[in-house]
Amino acid sequence: MVYQGVPHLVTDVQHRTQGRQAGFVQVTMRNLNTGASTNTKIRTTDSVEFCFMERKKLEYSYRDGDGYHFIHPETFEDTLLSMNILEEKEKFLVENTAYDIMFVDEKPIDLDLPAAIEMTVSESAEGIRGDTASNVQKPAKLETGLVVQVPLFIKPGDRIRVSTENATYLGKA
After folding, report:
1. Is residue 8 classed as helix, strand or coil in its secondary structure?
2. Residue 48 lies in a domain
3. Which of 26, 49, 68, 110 is the most exposed place for a label (fewest CB within 10 A)?
4. Within a domain: 88
5. Domain tally for the chain?
6. Domain range for 72
7. What is the largest CA-CA distance in the chain?
């Protein structure tokens, strides 16, 4: 929606009533230009303007000084996402993997991560032979630089699934 002339993404909506007064909607929204979150009340007398939103599935290609480049798999059109959009999500960006990119008025504004992503283990310590205690784990560095705890049998070169919600090991791919 457009709030004070700036596009916002609504992240939470709660309908409220207070005694005999008219109800209102409590809205939590994120400014799509700055990334700042805002809480506001929208009353029945307020008008709301919606913006056109579209999702496109684009493949992550590379990163440079300008930001992150995503390529449309059919048209090969290059889309650039700025670094401030992908602050915490960059550790889950794997080259040649498709991601859903949200566009508002033809401008890329956000990236939706899948629930889990496959990554290759680049570095991992050797498991100790004979260590059979249950649930023993070791740190492993993945291709994006992310470090997760994995079981002892995981070695460099293995493909694993990682949760994008909490960056934890889910299993071998």
Report:
1. strand
2. no
3. 49
4. yes
5. 3
6. 53-112
7. 71
Distance from C-alpha of 170 to C-alpha of 173, rounded to nearest angstrom: 9
Domain of 101, CATH number, reads 2.40.50.140
**Token couple for 58:** 């684009």
Give me the DSSP letters along 24-54.
EEEEEEEETTT--EEEEEEETT---B---EE
Q: Is the pLDDT of residue 71 over 60?
A: yes
Task: Name residue 19's amino acid.
Answer: G
Cα–Cα distance, 120 to 125 (Å, whole number): 15
Work out the pLDDT band at 70, boundaries 50, 70, 90.
very high
Full strand arrangement of the beta sheet holding 78-81: 78-81, 67-71, 53-64, 98-104, 107-112
The answer to whether 72 and 101 are in contact (CB under 8 A) is no
Decide if pLDDT at 5 tops 70: yes
Averaged pLDDT score across all residues of the chain: 87
Q: Does 128 score more than 60 pLDDT? A: yes
Using a 10 angstrom Cβ sphere, with 0-12 exposed, 13-18 middle and 19 or more buried, the burial of residue 60 is: buried
